[in-house]
Amino acid sequence: MNKREWFGEWFNSPYYHVLYNERDEREAHQFIDNLIKKLKPKEDAHFLDVACGRGRHAIYLNSKGFDVTGIDLSEQNLVTARESGNERLHFYQHDMREVFREHYFDFAVNLFTSFGYFDSREEDIKAIKAITRGLKPGGYFLIDFLNPYVVINDLVEAETKIIDGIKFNISRKFDGEFILKDIVLNNRGDIQYFQEKVRAIRRVDFLDYFQEAGLKVKEIFGNYNLKKYKSEKSERLIFLTQL
After folding, report:
1. CA–CA distance, 163 with 21 (Å, rounded to integer)
2. Which residue of 10, 27, 40, 78 has the smallest Cβ count within 10 Å?
């Protein structure tokens, strides 16, 4: 694994969690509630949360009675997530490009734009195929991604945030392939630089990925209330697929 990949460094940094300390827990819980109502999983269903971060979705899914496994590349994230672990909630350090467990899960989810970080289309497809290999026949894979059309059109080129005394100078641009966010932070004279890099994967690209992985697209949603996706207006690009 390439240790210089940006996400391995940035997601392990304590500054990542400072910058994103206002993640909306209520919205995350509402999304999970809507998914449960839509998917109607059985009580003994097994969920895989891919790129689970600190586990906010996995922990809430588990609180609903389901067996949940969370995987993430960042050991720093997992230290926090494991504090909530139990006999039906487990967290492991794992690269989504590699198969975690074959033909075991009823549902796999990849939430809150935890995809599109890799340098090549081939790596994207490898990840989708690895996740698919973890599903039982007939299992579902749901991926929640940003809507690239809206994000690019509404891109805020520069802003400054001061959080806990730390100054974050943030600039954004679209280079034709990736949405780039450059972050220069100043923590009382300690200046550090990070970059977020997310491929602007369009709907048609995802459709190609799913076809290569043997997944069938069941529905495409445009927000966490599971309303129909509209390319020029929707907040999110959410695919429900089935093996």
Report:
1. 9
2. 40
* 6-147+201-242 has CATH 3.40.630.30 classification: no
Distance in angstroms (rounded) separating the CA atoms of residues 235 and 229: 9
**Across-strand partners of 69?**
48, 90
- pTM assigned to the model: 0.92
Task: Calculate the alpha carbon distances from 135 to 12, 33, 66, 111, 128 in Å.
Answer: 28, 22, 16, 17, 11
> What is the C-alpha to C-alpha distance for residues 56 and 27, in angstroms, rounded to an integer?
11
The ranges assigned to domains in the chain are 6-147+201-242, 151-196
What pLDDT score does 40 carry? 97
CA quadruple 217, 112, 230, 234: dihedral, nearest 10: 170
Sign of the CA dihedral running 216, 149, 228, 42 = positive
